[in-house]
Amino acid sequence: MNNKLSINNLTLFITFLAFSCRATAKEENKINSTASPLSLHAGNEKYMMIDTKQSVLTWKGQNLSGLNSQTGYIYISKGELMIENGQLTGGTVEVDMNTIEDKNHGRDNKLVNHLKDPDFFEVEKFPYATIAITSVVPVNDKNQNITGNLTIKGITHPVTFPVKFEVRNGIVKADSKLVIDRTQWDVRYKSSKFYDKLANQTMSDSIEFHMKIIARK
Question: I need a labelling partner for 93 at 20 to 30 A (CA). Which of 70, 129, 161, 162 fits?
């Protein structure tokens, strides 16, 4: 009888331990899935760290007719710019998709919550978007064309866009506008490419991002 009880107790203990390990593994996976994937070159003299408190991105979307446009903000979680001989030569910017706001800085409303769900950016699964600069072509003293790899929802495509750039007193200021075709990053909501008979509810496939970035040592 005592042997039976001992065996039963041991079985219960092993079962409890197995479930505990699974729960711990799930929690670790959850933490790892939301952890920032970007590592910076801190301490490298060629790189200047982006000031996330002074840098900001604005976004704009609208329906196909150009009416009923929506605008708002989204914030950089971290990033860096590579500066050589006073010129921008590389860098990476990481955006926290959980910081999406409307034009009034609202973060918990129908519009913002919809932008975070799978119809748009699926933020719970893909909490970060990044752009990594691959080449910079000077236009003149203050203007350059940047090419980089833009990753949204785990999908990466190359993009090219202009940037106004200056370095003064150890501070970098960059101002640029990037327009993308959202469907390339699997944002298909009310797109005429995938849905018929939407009439005036059809949304433009273009999303505009205006980036104002400040970086310093």
Answer: 70
Residues 169, 146: contact at Cβ < 8 Å?
no
84: helix, strand or coil:
strand
What Rg, from alpha-carbon coordinates, does the chain have? 23
Global pTM reads 0.80
Contact 127, 138 (CB under 8 A): no
Select from 162, 160, 138 the least CA-distant residue to 149.
Answer: 160
Q: Which residues have a Cβ under 8 Å from the Cβ of 202 and sit 6 or more positions away? A: 63, 64, 190, 191, 192, 195
> Which structure tokens are listed for 22?
């699974």
Rounded Cα gap, residues 139 and 90, in angstroms:
16
